[in-house]
Write a structure and sequence with these properties.
- The protein is mainly alpha-helical.
- It has one domain.
- The chain is about 65% helix and about 0% strand.
- It contains 4 helices and 2 strands; from the N terminus they run H-E-E-H-H-H.
- The chain has a two-stranded antiparallel sheet with strand order 1-2.
- A hairpin with a 2-residue loop joins strand 1 and strand 2.
- Helix 1 runs antiparallel to helix 3 and helix 3 runs antiparallel to helix 4.
- The protein is elongated.
- Keywords: Membrane, Transmembrane, Transmembrane helix.
Length: about 220
């Protein structure tokens, strides 16, 4: 192979290498820019959505601690009937102007599904209230309302914690300056309600066991 051909080949290879290197540099630069923009979009989403989730969890907490009384007395207009004193909170994630697609699918799905779970809970409680004949205490209705809203509040709080962790935000698990911790209080409330329900079921089983069976005439 003569010197001219070698020089031509070298020149061609150098040209191709230069083009490939240039294209690779542009691709890497675009990837880094896109990565930075995605990171900023994710951090912005986390800051905004965590705030909404925390407010929703607080609203659920207010409902969970609503036992139908006001100042220690039944909150009904007649002063005898127990009635809700709180309005359920609202969480509408699709109204929040953020880029949801930057989140992992499982986390995005769990957050966007929260309003559906809330709607199902409200429908379930409405059915209980419609057929509730436990006037004026409405014990079963309030027990279920309080427990399920406590559970929903903890779920929203956990999603906020996952979102904080995803972007490296502080987890904020420390109690408030007065020592009150919302999530701890909600977990304790669930424990108390479950214990009361278990005791109720135990007593009901004892009464049922002691009640003689009624024979029907043939």
């Amino acid at each position: 192979m003569d010197t001219g051909n070698v020089s031509a080949i070298i020149s061609a290879v150098s040209g191709i290498s230069g083009v490939l290197f240039g294209n690779s540099f542009v691709a890497v630069k675009e990837w880094l820019v896109h990565r930075g923009e995605r990171r900023k979009a994710t951090e912005y989403l986390a800051i905004i959505v965590v705030s909404h989730l925390d407010r929703f969890a607080n609203g659920c907490s207010h409902v969970a601690f609503d036992d139908g009384t006001a100042y220690g007395r039944p909150a009904g207009p007649d002063g005898e009937e127990f009635t809700p004193t709180t309005t359920p909170p609202v969480f509408q994630p699709l109204d929040i102007d953020v880029e949801w697609k930057v989140l992992p699918v499982d986390l995005m799905y769990a957050i966007l599904r929260l309003p559906d779970q809330h709607e199902q809970l409200q429908s379930w409680l409405a059915g209980i209230a419609e057929f509730d004949d436990d006037y004026p205490d409405h014990t079963d209705y309030f027990r279920k309302r309080r427990r399920e809203y406590a559970s929903l509040g903890l779920q929203a709080s956990d999603l906020a914690r996952q979102l904080r962790k995803h972007v490296g935000m502080p987890l904020e698990d420390d109690p408030a300056p007065n020592g009150w911790n919302r999530d701890q209080e909600l977990r304790e409330l669930i424990r108390q309600i479950d214990a009361a329900q278990a005791e109720h079921n135990r007593r009901l089983a004892e009464v049922t066991a002691k009640t003689p069976a009624v024979s029907t005439p043939e």
